[in-house]
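Quick log. Single chain, no ligands specified.
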Amino acid sequence: MRIEPVFLFDLDGTLVDSVYQHVLAWKEALDAEGIDLSVWRIHRKIGMSGGLFTDQLLRETNMEISGDRVARLRQRHAEAYRRQADSIRPLPGARELLTWLTDAKISYAIATSGRMETAAVNLAALGVDPAVTRDVVKYAKPDPDLFLAAAEQLGAPIETAVVVGDSIWDMLAAVRCRALAIGLLSGGYGHEELRQAGAYRIFDDPADMLHHIDEVGGRR
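-> predicted structure:
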């Protein structure tokens, strides 16, 4: 009996070219709170849960990050990100890849560490239905909860899932829930970083993945 795969996609940097808009939005939010953190350090945290982001802020800045400050940071980030909505575009091949899966009757879902307040901007740019977002699970990546929830939404065992993401946090979450992981370079992480975090195949972007779709379980 053939096992039908399902595909679980991250959003930022995987389907939508939005990683650097997130970085700049976080930079604006942090600056407004008087927290000095280099842009490259912010980039390394995109895709992880808000709780881990806060923990790393504590380690790297030695500042007290109170609950009120966390709430302000989140609000400032969301406001700054939404102001960049006009510059956010689908990555090359993203729409075509999702259309191909739909036509091939292969199930897929989108699972993002972002909350709906920012994910809605990306989903509108991509032109797809709502995703499984951070709002509906207790823990986000690198915990596997988002991908487990997405697989459950599709009614599929997580062991049949292929997780597609651009960050090490996606790869680690995929490994933890026993799914196969595909890494995309379109979010700024390097080939070896993704490989070491658990990716079994790595492509440039969604267009490159679509070109090799038959190699990763996508067959009509």
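The first strand starts at residue 6 and ends at 9.
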